[in-house]
TrEMBL record:
InterPro entries: Ribosomal_uL4 (IPR002136), Ribosomal_uL4-like (IPR013005), Ribosomal_uL4_dom_sf (IPR023574). GO terms for biological process: translation. It comes from Pseudozobellia thermophila. This is Large ribosomal subunit protein uL4. GO terms for molecular function: rRNA binding; structural constituent of ribosome. Belongs to the universal ribosomal protein uL4 family. It comes from the Bacteria. SUPFAM superfamilies: Ribosomal protein L4.
Length: 210
């Protein structure tokens, strides 16, 4: 599949990038996409939630009133869950939410996500670019030239570039990753995927491993 390569001004360079059909034109497997997104979101949970139960509450162990003759229900401890300040019944406990997922399924999910974006014509290929120093304004100008300034965008670089990353960090709807950091969730969450030329080889190589 051939896609025109644009410069940072949004104009065609006259060159075309060859996107592998094995990565950008497969029949999407929606269930694999679902599983990978579910795993990603599960891994964002810390699982450190904790509520004190009856045995963990600090308080007197004396019987707070006599058993009979009060006209109310019997009660033996101020730490009972029925009283304010008492322990919580079946409260949350620390939990590991991580999930396991086969590597082949993850690759299939990412290829499926990229193929979905390709069908939607949401993939843009641009020539390599960099900044001498972080410049959010210059980065924003690139997004504007590409027509995605007000859309969620995922910019995929070939190698880590701190200046480009820092330039994008203050922009809420834009995220910069390398080809090795790309995830199904980030692909599906973005309206447009911007692939830098140098990222194509690494991206296709990572997703076509056996």
């Amino acid at each position: 599949m051939k896609v025109a390569v644009l410069d940072i001004k949004g104009k065609e360079t006259g060159r075309k990038a060859d996107l592998s059909d094995a990565v950008f034109a497969i029949e999407p497997n929606e269930h694999a996409v679902y599983l990978d997104v579910k795993q990603y979101l599960a891994h964002q949970r810390q699982g450190t939630h904790k509520a004190k139960e009856r045995a963990e509450i600090a308080g007197s162990t004396r019987k707070i009133k006599k058993q009979k003759g009060t006209g109310t229900a019997r009660a033996g401890s101020i730490k009972s869950p029925v009283f304010r300040g008492g322990g919580r019944i079946f409260g949350p406990r620390p939990k590991d939410y991580s999930q396991k997922l086969n590597k082949n399924v993850k690759r299939l999910a990412r290829k499926s996500a990229l193929s979905i974006k390709s069908r939607e014509n949401a993939i843009i290929v641009v020539e390599d670019f960099s900044f001498e120093t972080p410049k959010t304004k210059e980065f924003k100008d690139i997004l504007k030239s590409l027509g995605i300034e007000n859309k969620k965008s995922l910019i995929v670089l070939g190698d880590s570039n701190n200046s480009v990353y820092l330039s994008s960090r203050n922009l809420k709807g834009s995220e910069v990753v390398t080809s090795s950091e790309i995830s199904t969730y980030k692909i599906m969450n973005a309206n447009n995927i911007v692939l830098v030329e140098s990222a194509l080889e690494g991206l296709e190589s990572n997703l076509n491993k056996n």
